Amino acid sequence: MKAVVLEKSVSSQDLTVTEVDQPQPEDDEVLIKVKYSGVNYADILSRKGLYSWAGKRPYIMGLEAAGEVVETGKNVSDVEIGDRLVYGGQSGGYAEYLTVNQEYVLPAPENYTWEECAGFGVTFFTAWVAMHEMARVRPGETMLVHSAAGGVGTAAIQLGRVHGMQVFGTASQPHKRAKVEELGATAFSYDDFDTRLNEMEIRPDMVLETVGGDVYRRSFDLLAPMGRTVLVGASSIKVNKWNPLSLYRAYKALPSARMSQVLRRSRGFMGVHLGYMLKKPDILKPSWERMLEVIAEHDLHPEIDRVFPMSKVGEAHDWIDNRHNIGKVLLDPTE
Ligand SMILES: NC(=O)c1ccc[n+]([C@@H]2O[C@H](COP(=O)([O-])OP(=O)(O)OC[C@H]3O[C@@H](n4cnc5c(N)ncnc54)[C@H](OP(=O)(O)O)[C@@H]3O)[C@@H](O)[C@H]2O)c1
């Protein structure tokens, strides 16, 4: 089968599709024929050797995919051939087929297209866990979402709006800010979001932090008393591993909070990493089910930006790394 195997840190142009053996399901596993694979910002960090959760190389890249079950192991009881599933895991997404233990498979929403099935899992669930499991947001609260036109950002805006929240979002370019507004949030640039919120006398109850550095510090300062920052990423932090000054700068730009600030101003500083939680399906699955109910009740859909053929995987990485995407980028493994 065709797959993108990462053997060492490479530039985007050096990512290639290779032929590897098709995996066979073990007794507790199912074999999924992948329809589309999701491309995540974390894949770019993995390719550069900068992602702490990445597996041991060589591995097939890709943290998520959606597809149809085509074979089941002999102990598999809850999943049937033909089921539509969403996959999330440490590797294996950029391939024509993947195997997964039945314990970790997630059902896909019935009314979604295959593109939507592959594009909503990580985006919506990251936003959902940050908002509902960590920050425990309430209707009427205010939320500031950074990189709001991205995959996670567009999901967070939608989840916030249907929960009765007032949502504000940052994005780097006017056409991205237009999308943020279209989804029901008030859009700002990174340059002036704090000035604008101060003018409006609004202090966010929650910040969904995805950017890091100065953006993080200015946002944390803005938080309302009893406000919560939930850190999910830090896309602005660029590291050159071989340059000690770059490493030092990246370390300084990583979001962190002094307990004295947290305590004196009654604020929360939290983090979410879905990857490290994946081995806890007993905790994640009930939350996933609750999220699916909300998605169905309000007919929410992920923003799909573009589908690249898997043979153009490097271009897909560059598209995100160069900040072109609005919503989710996917790969078609058949092309
Ligand atoms: N913790 C978790 O479990 C988890 C799960 C999924 C994603 N994440 C994190 O959540 C964030 C969003 O992920 P995503 O996959 O949905 O990506 P994305 O938001 O679709 O793409 C990344 C966005 O980051 C923004 N950005 C800000 N500064 C940047 C810079 N210096 N260079 C490049 N991009 C910059 C860009 O939007 P603008 O051009 O508008 O600034 C860019 O479009 C990422 O930090 C990712 O690592 C975390």
Topology:
Blueprint: E1 2-6, E2 17-19, E3 29-39, H1 41-47, E4 59-60, E5 64-72, E6 84-88, E7 97-101, E8 106-107, H2 114-134, E9 142-145, H3 151-162, E10 166-170, H4 174-182, E11 186-188, H5 193-199, E12 206-209, H6 213-222, E13 228-231, H7 244-253, H8 259-264, E14 268-271, H9 274-277, H10 281-298, E15 304-309, H11 313-321, E16 328-332
Parallel strand pairs: 9-10, 9-12, 10-11, 12-13, 13-14, 15-16
Antiparallel strand pairs: 1-2, 1-4, 3-5, 3-7, 3-16, 5-6, 6-8
This protein binds NADP nicotinamide-adenine-dinucleotide phosphate (NAP).
Describe this structure in words.
This protein has two domains: 2-120 and 276-332, Quinone Oxidoreductase, Chain A, domain 1 (Alpha-Beta Complex), CATH 3.90.180; 122-274, NAD(P)-binding Rossmann-like Domain (Rossmann fold, 3-Layer(aba) Sandwich). It has helices at residues 41-47, 114-134, 151-162, 174-182, 193-199, 213-222, 244-253, 259-264, 274-277, 281-298, 313-321; strands at 2-6, 17-19, 29-39, 59-60, 64-72, 84-88, 97-101, 106-107, 142-145, 166-170, 186-188, 206-209, 228-231, 268-271, 304-309, 328-332. The protein is globular, with a radius of gyration of 20 Å. It is built from eleven helices and 16 strands.
Summarize the structure.
The protein is α/β, with parallel strands linked by helices and 335 residues long.
Output the CATH homologous superfamily of the largest domain.
Answer: Medium-chain alcohol dehydrogenases, catalytic domain
Largest sheet: 7 strands, mixed
Number of domains: 2
Uncertain runs with pLDDT below 50, 5 residues or more? none
- Got a strand count? 16
CATH structural architecture of the largest domain: Alpha-Beta Complex
Q: Which structural class should the secondary elements be placed in?
A: alpha/beta
Overall mean pLDDT:
95
Radius of gyration: 20 Å
Order of helices and strands: EEEHEEEEEHEHEHEHEHEHHEHHEHE
Specify the helix fraction band: 25-40%
